[in-house]
Design brief:
The structure holds 2 protein chains of 2 kinds. By secondary structure, chain A is an alpha/beta fold. In chain A, 33% of the residues lie in helices and 23% in strands. Chain A has 2 domains: 262 residues, Rossmann fold (3-Layer(aba) Sandwich); 94 residues, 2-Layer Sandwich (Alpha-Beta Plaits), CATH 3.30.70. In chain A, helix 7 runs parallel beside helix 8. Chain B folds into 2 domains: 233 residues, no CATH class; 120 residues, abc type-2 transporter like domain (abc type-2 transporter like fold, 3-Layer(aba) Sandwich). Chain B is built from 16 helices and 4 strands. In chain B, helix 3 links the parallel strand 1 and strand 2. In chain B, helix 9 packs antiparallel against helix 11. Classes of the chains: A alpha/beta, B mainly alpha. Chain B: This is Transport permease protein.
């Protein structure tokens, strides 16, 4: 039965895009080598010194009317680092980035880029940054080459266009008008424009949102190559896999505040449960949508088991909580998630428990914990609204 | 400087590649010109409907009546009685009524006999001429309409003068070499073409700038440029240069089409004409920038611009002369830039006027330009 379920889980798991590097179940998942390399490099992330900071953000604060969009954000970004702002839509990522770029005036706090304060020497800041705005729009009727030459003319110094076209894989589109470019090509052009002045810091605001998986991979590749060349990059995203692959450090944001800031691995380690076991009950009614904090709400446990043998969710979660090794139990929609530090013990005990209780389960799969789990653990909500 | 040149060239490329815009900004004025030109230009020079009431019915009176028909200015219509003709005059169906009273032929022949002997080689028979009583005809016209009244008087005087001079064998001491008066006579198309150029400058710049800037702002195109080291002044200077080039070329195209199809001419200097094209472009561009800044959404920028330019198009002396409008409307219209732009273009093209006679137009347009530019730079925002 377990084997059967494992097989079933395997089929389910493949289309899902998840980063489970040391997990047998997702061994069939294709993964390109650069991503693997990127992950390997993570282990040698160096702790940087404060004097190497190219960006210093101190207590940035922004209000729109009565609504606080960014609530006292402080961090530093070191030279050569890829710094990620990860959070759901509306977390304040764009507002934070644009205050550093000098496009929005903060209502409090300060931001310095390469030592230049955005409030007092904005032109100097603009000279050393390159930005790709979340909703970049360009002159549709100009060609790729014309647009690049035009933006190059806005700066006292600019890089040659040829290598830039090569790097951004736009060489065969150079004579094509912007309106005929695909979403991915437009985004690469936006990055090419952002690099035209050879900036010290590159800002990428949700560079892969709305792109198909193929175009996303291409863009990741580009970002990783820039990183290899030592470009400092500040990147915002609401995809946890993207943040994990690309970023040296991640600043988890929610509702205008920083809720965590560390390397991806450290963030996951902070969960203290490296693995997660997921399963569903076959005829689970969606009725009891106890959120992630369901374990604490003992009052929801109904007095008796269901007539058909399947137990009520609250009761089941209480049982699961007591399996050895389990640190936390959550019910997301109709999927139960057990976080554990001891995968083997928990799994064995789980199967035993379910057999004893005569509960049928399906779609069993195990995986390592992700940044998404970190976010849910800290906020009680997912990164993406369902 | 680099940025200014690049932006100017880019903007010109955008103009050239935006077919829809080119159609609207060039085809439209040319279409208007052709349509109005062919519709209203058929009867050539202006003419006046007139009726000749011959109560004398002699050879002399018929001869006089036929002379009225040959002026080329009067369009003779038949009326049965004087009363009927006067009625038509009151209802503006006629512009002039000439009555040749009974006894006209008699007086004329008596007068001729008296003057005949004295008219020899010299012109010395003044006493004898005064002895006869001149024949009389009556003309009735609408004195409230200055244009038709002037034409009526001129036509009648020319005819009677001719008859008198022939009768007394008058030899003028000074002769005037007559040169084709017809060619100097202005027709509606001469009025229309400069108006069309003025209209084109207005709508290109007011509507064009307002729509484009508002849409660029909405789509974040301007915001992206704001995040570079580009200075707003370079951006605006490039916009101005590119639009001046576009308007200059379009004005020349419209003028050439007018010349080849309708034979209109530029009698004044092209330099003066160009000056007014430039100053008009700048004034209307600045107004366009203001509209783009004041509009809350890009969707509202176009209607606001249309709301401003549409009345100006019809009241500003583009298609119809301002003089024909009610007094109080004229007062308002005379404050508008379009009125002065179309008047200036018209004067330069039709009468060959120079700056000396166009300083009012120059001042008013210049004033609009400076005030609008000041407000435009004050209200301009990148986002
Ligand atoms: N110009 C603005 N006016 C009013 N509210 C805004 C404006 N820009 C952003 N917001 C609000 O501020 C919050 C943060 O927005 P944003 O920084 O764009 O978030 P993110 O980039 O993380 O999705 C959102 O709730 C958004 O609705
Ligand atoms: Mg955003």
């Amino acid at each position: 039965m377990l084997l059967l379920d494992r097989k079933h889980a395997l089929i389910i798991a493949i289309p899902q895009y998840r980063l489970n590097q040391d997990n047998g179940i997702v061994a069939g998942m294709e993964r390109s080598t650069f991503i693997q390399n990127a992950i390997n490099r993570k282990s040698e992330v160096l702790r940087v010194h404060a004097d190497d900071r190219v960006i210093e953000v101190d207590g940035l604060f922004k209000k729109y009317g009565n609504f606080t969009a960014v609530n006292g954000v402080s961090f530093g970004v070191s030279r050569g680092e890829v710094f990620g702002l990860l959070g759901p839509n509306g977390a304040g990522k764009t507002t934070t980035m644009e205050m550093i770029e000098g496009l929005r005036k903060p209502d409090g706090g300060s931001a310095k880029v390469a030592g230049h304060d955005t409030r007092t020497s904005l032109r100097k800041v603009k000279e050393v940054i390159g930005v790709q705005l979340q909703s970049t729009s360009l002159f549709e009727l100009l060609t790729v080459e014309e647009i690049l030459r035009m933006y190059a003319s806005f700066y006292p110094r600019s890089v040659p266009i040829e290598p830039l076209l090569d790097d951004m894989i736009l060489q065969d589109k150079r004579k094509g008008q912007v309106k005929h470019l695909s979403g991915g090509q437009k985004q690469r052009l936006a990055i090419a424009i952002a690099l035209i002045n050879d900036p010290i810091v590159l800002f990428l605001d949700e560079p892969t949102t709305g792109l198909d998986p193929q175009a996303r991979r291409t863009l990741w590749d580009i970002v990783l190559r820039l990183k290899e060349r030592g470009k400092t990059i500040v990147l915002s995203t609401h995809y946890m896999d993207e943040a994990h692959i690309l970023c040296d450090r991640i600043c988890l944001m929610d509702q205008g505040s920083i809720i965590a800031l560390d390397t991806p691995d450290e963030l996951i380690r902070s969960l203290q449960s490296e693995n997660a076991i997921e399963f569903r009950l076959p005829d689970q009614v969606d009725g009891y949508q106890t959120a992630s904090s369901a374990i604490q709400s003992d009052s929801h446990i109904p007095p008796a088991a269901g007539a058909d043998g399947s137990e009520a969710p609250g009761m089941l979660m209480g049982l699961l909580q007591h399996i050895p090794g389990v640190q936390q139990v959550e019910l997301r929609k109709d999927t139960y998630v057990l976080y554990t530090s001891d995968l083997q013990a928990t799994l064995t005990n789980f199967v035993q428990l379910m057999s004893e209780r005569n509960i049928t389960f399906t779609d069993l799969r195990t995986r390592t914990a992700t940044l998404e789990d970190v976010f849910i653990h800290m906020t009680g909500r997912g990164l993406r609204e369902e | 400087m680099k940025a200014y040149l690049q932006l100017t060239v880019s903007q010109l490329k955008l103009f050239a590649r935006n077919r829809q815009m080119l159609v609207f900004t060039l085809f439209f004025p040319v279409f208007f010109m052709l349509m109005f030109g062919f519709l209203f230009n058929n009867d050539g020079p202006m003419s006046l409907d007139a009726s000749i009431i011959d109560q004398d019915r002699t050879e002399a009176s018929q001869e006089l009546a036929s002379r009225f028909g040959q002026t080329g200015v009067l369009n003779i219509k038949t009326s049965d009685t004087e009363a009927a003709a006067l009625d038509a005059l009151k209802h503006n169906d006629l512009g002039l009524v000439v009555v040749i009273p009974e006894g006209y032929g008699d007086s004329l022949s008596k007068f001729a006999q008296v003057s005949e002997p004295s008219s020899g080689g010299t012109n010395g028979g003044s006493a004898a001429v005064n002895a006869g009583t001149p024949a009389q005809i009556r003309m009735i016209y609408d004195s409230s309409n200055l244009t038709t009244a002037g034409m009526a008087k001129a036509a009648v005087n020319a005819v009677t003068d001719g008859v008198s001079k022939e009768l007394v064998h008058f030899t003028p001491a000074v002769t005037v070499a007559e040169e084709s008066v017809q060619s100097q006579q202005l027709s509606y198309i001469d009025f229309l073409v400069p108006g069309i150029v003025a209209m084109m400058i207005m709508s290109n710049n007011l509507n064009g700038v307002a729509g484009q800037i508002a849409s660029w702002r909405e789509r974040g195109v301007l915001r992206r440029m704001q995040s570079t080291m580009l200075r707003p002044s370079s951006f605006i200077a490039a916009q101005i240069t590119a639009r001046l080039a576009l308007n200059g070329v379009q004005a020349v195209i419209v003028l050439l089409i007018g010349q080849f199809i309708f034979g209109t001419q530029v009698r004044g200097s092209w330099g003066t004409l160009l000056f007014f094209v430039i100053i008009g472009t700048l004034a209307f561009m600045s107004i366009g920038f203001i509209v783009a800044s004041l509009a809350r959404t890009p969707e509202s920028a176009n209607p606001i611009a249309a709301f401003l330019s549409f009345p100006m198009m019809f009241l500003g002396g583009v298609f119809f002369p301002i003089k024909n409008m009610p007094e109080f409307v004229q007062k308002i219209v005379n404050l508008l830039p379009i009125a002065h732009l179309s008047t200036a273009m018209r004067e330069v093209m039709n009468t060959g006027a120079g700056f000396a006679s166009l300083w009012t137009q120059t001042l008013v347009l210049g004033g609009w330009m400076i005030v609008a530019f000041a407000i435009a730079s004050y209200t301009f925002k990148w986002e």
